[in-house]
Amino acid sequence: MTLVVGHRGAAAHAPENTMEAFRLGVEMGADAIELDVHLTRDGQLAVIHDETLERTTDLQGPVRELTMKEIRRADAGYRFSASDGSFPFRGKGLKVPTLPEVLRSLPAGTGLVVEIKPAAAAAPTVEALRSAKVRAAGAVSVISFDQRAIDEAHELDPELSTGYLLVPFEAFDAGLTWAVQRGHSAVHVYEGDLGVDPAPKLNQARAYGLQVGCYVVNDPQRMQHLAAYGLWAFVTDWPDVGRQTLGPRGAPPSAQPGAQSSS
Ligand code: G3P
Ligand code: CA
């Protein structure tokens, strides 16, 4: 069964990459939660998508030049706007989380997809995951657009599931070949690049034993379509819609990012 992965938690419903978005993603039935990590000046793993604070918080500046303590002063709910134009999460105490904080709070049975943004965050991410329950459960994947990041993660922990994120319009064959040669478990493709008939790419990956993930799928018809072709997993800003579209969660191990869909 195709896995529903909550993109940045549940980005349509709550400020992305916050504990509230992760809580909602889990509550809405996501099989796994996706998040992004950057390295702070004092070597901590901040869960935030951009390399700077301004798009998602009330503060500014590059994450790599700030300490985690400084970043924690930011209101991570400041920029999120609801469909009526209001800002329901402003001043509600939402912070930029750390990866260990998320790892401690993730409930058993929910998988995790950690996207490493700068390669410098690879080694600390692997270290943070070593003692994590989700790692012991085999339910974590580390992914990146940066080949150096997942290569390093794989070298440091060969048992860890690692996936290569292809940028939009990147040649699938070359990306798949690279991932196979480097021992990675998955490729993650821009949704548009799977096209009307995703079967050739999915079959090619399957022949090499690689999983195919897809980002970002928000349209229920497209979710259904890709699931019918046996896509392994997609990330969505609407995990509730994903769950309603694909039906109830399957029993483990289908909830684990390491499991390959066979249908
Ligand atoms: O899951 C992959 C997806 O999150 C990559 O894009 O920009 O949302 O990190 P982005
Ligand atoms: Ca991401």
Describe it:
The chain has helices spanning 19-27, 68-71, 99-105, 122-130, 133-136, 147-156, 172-181, 199-207, 220-228, 239-246; strands spanning 3-6, 32-39, 45-47, 111-116, 140-144, 161-165, 186-190, 211-215, 233-236. Helices cover 30% and strands 17% of the residues. Helix 1 (19-27) links the parallel strand 1 and strand 2 (32-39). The longest helix is centred in the middle third of the chain and has 10 residues, at 147-156. It has a single domain, classed as TIM Barrel. Residues 251-263 have low confidence and may be disordered. The chain has an eight-stranded parallel β-barrel, surrounded by six helices. Helix 4 runs parallel beside helix 6 and helix 9 (220-228) packs across helix 10 (239-246). It has 263 residues and is α/β, with parallel strands linked by helices.
